[in-house]
Task: structure prediction
Amino acid sequence: MTPSTVYIGCGAGFSGDRLDAAIPVVNTLTKKKGPKYLIFETLAERTLALAQKQKQQDPNHGYSPFLEDYLRPILKTCAGSGIKIVSNFGAANPIGAAKKISEIAAQLDCKNLRIAIILGDDLLNVFSSDEIRNHPTIEGLEINDQEIIAANAYLGARPIAEALRLGADIVVVGRCTDPALVLGPLINEFGWKENDWQHLAQGTMAGHLLECGAQVTGAYFADPGYKDVPNLAEVGFPIAEIKDDGSIIITKADETGGIVSEQTVKEQLLYEIHDPANYYTADVILDISKVSVEQIAANRVRVSGANGKPYPSTLKATVSINGGWMGEAEMTYAGPNALARAKLAIDVLKKRCQNLKTNYPIRFDILGTVSVHSGDMGPDNYDSFGIDGDYRVRIASKGQDKKIVERINQEMLSLYCSGPSGGGGFRQHLTDQIHTASILVDRDKVATKIEFI
Amino acid sequence: MTKPDLIVTRLHQVAHARAGDKGNRSNISLIPYNPNLYSLLKEQVTESRVLALFSHKGATKVTRYELPNLPAFNFVLDDALEGGVNSALNLDQHGKSLSSLLLTMDVKVPNDLISR
Result:
């Protein structure tokens, strides 16, 4: 029998999201009558490549590093209340993730949990590296001759729906489209057909609104005096209530902070969207250009008007390659005439870096004047603030040779004893860079497989 | 009926915004607090003005999409992210703070429509 309402909550919107956010979501879901799901979206563009590197070092790793932190507090309640969990926390190692979940379930005495794994996103099993390089880049950097660390296609919602139909309590995916985490459960519950573009569009929009967690419930939104948000420290994560006809209400976990308003929903609706009439996913091309939002009660917003068009013949994939090294180093100058000393530090650094005769890009910032809003190579001048204050000098550089990037950072360190008066608080990072590029692959080449452990 | 006074103010007073990134493209939504400001913002927050505001960051093209039912705009800025999150030397590699840069733009609006 088709249910009247499906409840889907979100417990994480990125790989490092609040570890305890799912607890109030689950507590709220347990009170609902009808099918209930919890999703965790933990896979940004680069996350998978980082996971692939971890897996190369240890074959038991390479899934979401916070998997256990997310699941342990809620797994027993979910198992006991029939809340099914769908997540891409499999990253580069969905099988490893499933084994870990199974281990946690056993420790918590959750019996007979059926854990499904969706395989097939890893294109290194389908294509040679050269074949991957032959696909033109549609977004991001050109794929050069550097080693390909990871190449994964964004799978759609169908395999998730099928795994649920086969009885999965938990579905672990590697790379899939973020909205598929929500659309998969909806297809399973409502039986939406492959060409039911209107419903698939509404379900995809619901997924898009949920996939960034609290970004639809007042987080990444608050601006004191303009957009006030109650109790942001305990912001409640979202729950969508979706009906058979595709109607969507966005609300949030009970007894939490945050706010669900027309404003919060509008901001998230357009987040990371380019052409609102053509948002490509594996399941449908979503058109949100005619969407309306309506506040129907406190913390309840109805979202309607999504349209759908047939899905494209290709799937998007992210290819990750080694990107060399990035160095960052910082030092603070504070108190009387601090800006002049910070500027002197920049002069010294620029001269020292010229002596290194490197062609690596180097950027110089003084934080506290203007930095993030300035151009590629830092601001033209640093005079926008007062001469006293608390200024942080920053240098950033990048290139393939770690030694050169380290050497540029060292120029900042040496300012302790060889720079302007009173520099302090030196910190530095040296980051192993991963570059990503998006390509389109023929969807017929990507075969998915469902396994249960 | 007398016409309300027009005043020059920053977009931040009359609209809110959110920035997202994909590769080297930034998208910034612009949402008026008062829906009646939509057509005025449509006249004033043009693709060319937004491109001028972001050209020092390397932006090469701005496309404005209109969503009259919300109402809101979506600006897509090509090449505005120094290569994007994997490559930028900017402290804010995603360009998350660029929504605030858009909100520094001056607009001329009727005094009585400045409300939140």
